[in-house]
Specification:
By secondary structure, the protein is an alpha+beta fold. Helix content is 61%, strand content 13%. Strands 2-1-5-4-3 form a five-stranded antiparallel sheet. The longest helix has 85 residues, at 133-217.
């Protein structure tokens, strides 16, 4: 038997119960309908006949009054019409005797009606003078009242019967409702019990199949489902057994190799000391090594608050940023330097990590996930701090003797210690220039150290962008004229003021303009501009020099880095200092360049507070 037929049989008890309830309901409702029909057939017709007889006898009484007042023709016409109507309704009543005493009252009504007609015909006979009012009141009115009284008695008998029968019908309806409620409840319970029992027997093979599937899911590929009968469930059980058999064979062959490869790859990932987390395209954690579990405190798969919900916010935001960079199809995400490092608290103390992410590809779908590696650079970070401390110490120790040396050379060049020959003067002038250059390098080193240590106080206030550009252009205009270089400024009209420390931003613009002049050929052009930006105000310094190759653009802001082939001068600290100052203001800095077509260095600053807002207090970078 097919499964559909079995399921139909399982519902059959409910159908039978519903059919029984329906039959009982039809029987009881039919009986109620018959009761109502009997009321209409037995009593309502008599009530209607009595009402009409009363109306007809009253109209005949009116005709008798017409006789009294001398309107004979009108009286006879009206009497003839209502005599027929009364007679017809009386015959209806005589054929519809249904209540006790109704037959006796009907006979009395017939007798009273005959007497009324005899008296009325006597008054209406002849063509002489009209009957008198006395004749009407003495002979005809008593007969009229007798007929009307009998008609009213028939009316009362049938109306009382209708009330009794209606009340009986209501009681029967209430009993029927109670009966239907009980029968429906019993039928429903019996149908549910019977259907549940039949359905349980039908679905028993599914329980065996489910248990076998659970065992296979747990890795027991020897589990088999019992095959009973020839329906669809039995066919499904046979197919399941064949699938389990094939899975067992597959495990014995290539699946074992796949599992071995997976275990080998997981072992390789676990052997990496740096935290490694693998995400799928939905951002869920697929796998991670032991270092990542220890650092992040998460496991593979979804968890409350998202896969990284329990990771501290700073570290989580960095991981999400590099992961989303890769999943958005932008390629690998690599750090640019120590400035991209993030710190995290671990049982071993505070550690520093550089995040990087690599896409995982699945042919032909494309990106299938992202692998995020947190490179532990704690030792390098400590070395960097040590180097910074060493540089700061050396620069500080150099400053005093260098100042003394510079003063001594200056006094000698001024011939304070005696006259100099031309050769001696040239050598001392060269020494003084080198001393001044060393003094500038030491000052730059100290500035970088103070900026990174957060010991530089920024005295920020609202400043018009054109004022910043004008000051730096005036300071470098003489140098530009000597080489025939034109310095142009482009400022968007009505530009909002920026919230900045003018002295520090002047140093940034001065460094950028100095580099632009150094790399621009004689008779070239350097342009300084300022315009609106989504981050506030964007400043630009454009030159017409030789440009910077793409592989060097990400490193020009590193300390002591110089582009190969660059003109001599400087120690590679100016752009690093500029970046530290801009970022301390909450802005960004960058470069856009193309070899042979010049470079554009830019940075952004936030807009100054509007009217009515309190100016920002000095802060420490």
């Amino acid at each position: 038997m097919r499964l559909r037929s079995k399921l139909f049989l399982a519902q059959l008890p409910l159908g039978i119960a519903l059919a029984v309830v329906a039959l009982i309901a039809v029987f009881e409702i039919t009986k109620l309908g018959e009761s109502s029909e009997r009321i209409l057939a037995e009593n309502y017709r008599s009530v209607l006949a009595a009402q009409r007889m009363k109306d007809s006898i009253e109209r005949m009484d009116s005709a008798a009054l017409f006789l009294v007042v001398g309107q004979r023709d009108r009286a006879l016409t009206q009497a003839a019409e209502h005599r027929r109507r009364f007679e017809a309704e009386l015959r209806v009543e005589e054929r519809n005797i249904t209540e006790p005493r109704e037959a006796d009252v009907a006979r009395k009504l017939r007798a009273a009606w005959g007497e009324y007609q005899r008296v009325f015909n006597g008054l209406a006979a002849g063509s002489g003078p009209a009957p008198t009012a006395g004749a009407y009141f003495q002979r005809l009115e008593p007969a009229f009242l007798a007929v009307k009284e009998q008609a009213e008695e028939i009316l009362d008998l049938n109306q009382d019967a209708m009330v009794r029968k209606s009340e009986a019908a209501r009681r029967k309806a209430r009993r029927t409702i109670g009966l239907m409620d009980g029968v429906s409840l019993v039928a429903l319970l019996l149908g549910i019990v019977a259907s549940g029992w039949v359905t349980g027997r039908l679905l028993r093979p599914l329980g065996s199949l489910s248990q076998a599937a659970r065992r296979v899911g747990e890795g027991d590929l020897d589990a088999r489902a019992a095959v009973v009968g020839g329906d669809e469930i039995a066919g499904l059980a046979r197919e399941f057994n064949q699938m389990a058999e094939r899975l067992g064979g597959y495990r014995a062959s290539s699946l074992g190799e796949l599992l071995l490869a997976q275990e080998a790859s997981q072992t390789t990932i676990d052997s990496i000391p740096d935290p490694v987390v693998v995400f799928d395209v939905e951002g869920r954690v697929l796998s991670l090594n032991q270092a990542a579990e220890t650092l992040l405190g998460v496991t593979a798969g979804p968890s409350a608050g998202g896969p990284l919900g329990r990771v501290e916010p700073g570290l989580r935001s960095v991981i999400e940023r590099v992961k989303n960079h890769v999943l958005a199809g932008k390629g690998p995400c690599t750090p640019k330097g120590f400035q991209d490092a993030v710190s995290a608290s671990t049982p071993e103390g505070l550690r520093y990590f550089l995040p990087r992410a690599t896409p995982l590809y699945a042919r032909p779908q494309g990106i299938a996930g992202a692998a995020v590696i947190l490179q532990d650079i704690t030792r390098l970070w400590r070395f960097e701090e040590l180097r910074n401390d060493l540089v700061a110490t050396v620069a500080h120790e150099f400053r005093t003797p260098l100042t003394s040396l510079h003063l001594a050379i200056h006094l000698c060049t001024e011939q304070a210690a005696g006259p100099l020959t031309d050769k001696q003067a040239d050598l001392l002038h060269a020494a003084r220039e080198d001393c001044e250059r060393l003094q500038g390098i030491v000052d730059d080193l100290l500035d970088v150290t103070r900026l990174r240590a957060g010991k530089v106080e920024l005295k920020r206030r609202p400043v018009p962008p054109e004022d910043l550009l004008t000051e730096v252009v005036e300071a470098r205009q003489a140098e530009a004229r000597q080489r025939g270089i034109v310095i142009e400024t482009e400022v968007v009209p009505s530009l909002d003021g920026v919230l900045a420390d003018p002295d520090r931003i002047h140093l940034v613009l001065s460094n950028l303009l100095s580099n632009a002049l150094r790399y621009t050929a004689d008779n070239g052009t350097v342009t300084l501009g300022a315009g609106p930006d989504e981050a506030g105000v964007r400043f630009e310094v454009r030159d017409t020099g030789q440009g910077i190759a793409p592989e060097h653009q990400d490193r020009v802001f590193e300390r002591f880095y110089r582009v190969p082939g660059a003109p001599p001068g400087g120690a590679g600290l100016g752009l690093s200092i500029a970046r530290e100052i801009v970022e301390a203001h909450g802005g960004r800095i960058g470069v856009e360049s193309e070899v042979g077509r010049g470079s554009t260095f830019w940075f952004t600053l936030p807009v100054a507070p509007g009217e009515g807002e309190a100016p920002a207090a000095p802060d420490v970078a």
